[in-house]
């Protein structure tokens, strides 16, 4: 979601530096749609705020009280451990976040490249986690976003996982 990307950008100095250096790459790694990327390129605060407001309007209401829990629980990826793996190998990870639900899917994303993981042991609720195994056999080295999806929502944590080049042994 655009609002999560903007919130992450506002509070993460590393993401800010990466975005300043190469905004196209960071937006692609974050999994933003072409429309969202084009919107951010306009740098029009009103249009961006309107888009975020539209996202918020689409979130389910959980209470008639506008102060208490008005947007309901939101799926959000917050971390992955370990933060990297080696090209050509499999890696078992734990993905952390909020309000995961069953079933979940999880993938590593780098531009158009998507590496789907095998999800198991999903713990739901406010302090969520899931075990995910990724096969990095054909993965290109570099940073990847971690994207989690449920039936109703998705979240991407940009540049959260690094695929390292496999060391070549001399012949």
Query: Which residues form runs of ≥5 with pLDDT under 50?
Result: 61-70
Biggest beta-sheet profile: 5 strands, mixed
Task: Report the portion of residues in β strands.
Answer: 35-45%
Radius of gyration from the CA trace? 17 Å
What does this protein structure show overall?
The protein has 171 residues and is of the alpha+beta class. The chain is built from 5 helices and 9 strands; from the N terminus they run H-H-H-H-H-E-E-E-E-E-E-E-E-E. The termini are far apart. Residues 61-70 have low confidence and may be disordered.
Summarize the structure.
The protein has 171 residues and is an alpha+beta fold. It has five helices and nine strands; from the N terminus they run αααααβββββββββ.
List the helices and strands and how they pair.
Layout: H1 2-11, H2 13-21, H3 23-29, H4 34-42, H5 45-57, E1 76-81, E2 84-86, E3 90-98, E4 105-110, E5 113-116, E6 118-123, E7 128-135, E8 142-149, E9 154-164
Parallel strand pairs: 2-9
Antiparallel strand pairs: 1-3, 3-7, 4-5, 4-8, 6-7, 8-9
Helix pairs in contact: 1-2, 2-3
Keywords:
single chain; 171 residues; alpha+beta; five-stranded mixed β-sheet; four-stranded antiparallel β-sheet; 5 helices; globular
């Amino acid at each position: 979601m655009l609002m999560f990307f903007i919130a992450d950008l506002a509070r993460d100095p590393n993401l800010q530096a990466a975005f300043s250096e190469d905004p196209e790459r960071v937006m692609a790694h974050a999994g933003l749609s072409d429309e969202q990327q084009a919107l951010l390129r306009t740098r029009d605060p009103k249009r961006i705020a309107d888009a975020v407001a539209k996202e918020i309007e689409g979130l389910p209401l959980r209470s008639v009280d506008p102060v208490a829990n008005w947007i309901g629980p939101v799926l959000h990826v917050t971390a992955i451990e370990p933060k990297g793996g080696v090209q050509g190998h499999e890696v078992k990870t734990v993905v952390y976040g909020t309000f995961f639900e069953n079933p979940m899917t999880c993938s590593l994303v780098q531009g158009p490249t998507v590496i789907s993981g095998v999800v198991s042991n999903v713990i739901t609720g406010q302090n969520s986690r899931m075990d995910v195994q990724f096969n990095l056999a054909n993965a290109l080295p570099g940073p990847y976003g971690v994207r989690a999806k449920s039936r109703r929502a998705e979240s991407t944590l940009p540049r959260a996982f690094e695929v390292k080049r496999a060391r070549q042994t001399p012949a």
